[in-house]
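Q: I'm writing up a methods section and want to include an example of the input and output format. Could you take the sequence below and give the corresponding predicted structure tokens, formatted cleanly so I can copy it straight into the document?
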Amino acid sequence: MKSPIPGNEAKRLDALWRYHILDTPPEPMFDDVALVASAICQTPIALMSLIDSERQWFKARVGLDASETPREQAFCAYTVLSNEPLIVEDATLDERFAGNPLVTSDPHIRFYAGAPLVDREGHALGSLCVINRKPRQLTAEQKAALTALARSVIFHLELRKITAQLVHSLEELQTVRGLLPICSHCKGIKNDQGYWQKVEDYIRSLTAADLSHGICPACVEAHYPELHKKLVADGKA
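A: Here is the clean output for your methods example:
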């Protein structure tokens, strides 16, 4: 059975992909969050799950060997439909999940609680979830803690993205600081591929800067002496 699709699916997927986190190696900050979620909620399984177009992929996992499952089997595919936690106390009694292979066979999910990972634009990227092999409930305190941990995951994701952007910007600056061959006549710049570019095009290719044109006072005086005299007389030079 196909999993449900959020109304903002295209924007949600675009937001997820912009984090460049899918299929990356384990990272301690996310592993620690999953471990704490498992301990607080007293469940043998805890996952940081990200819902891609055709699968759910686990950035962090406790108590489960699989690194991903098909999206149509993902409990978390239902969690991303809302910005509120999803609690399933007994999956065998829930028509959405009773026939799910993850319920009828290993890991034999009975209890599931997932807090959506909601970014600053309101897109649910996945969930921080805890799982048990027997029916149970969460206390109000455990539910609140799981939601708080999900917010911390988003904070770490944002920090990770900003850090990558800063590293990229630093690399661009280091490139610009290198020795640049400049034509003594037209002032064009020779790029790394050996082609000559206008200064404006070269700068635009390396940075987000836009350029405008003007004439400096020295050039006005040298090339437009009559205009320079007028500017001086008017007190504008």
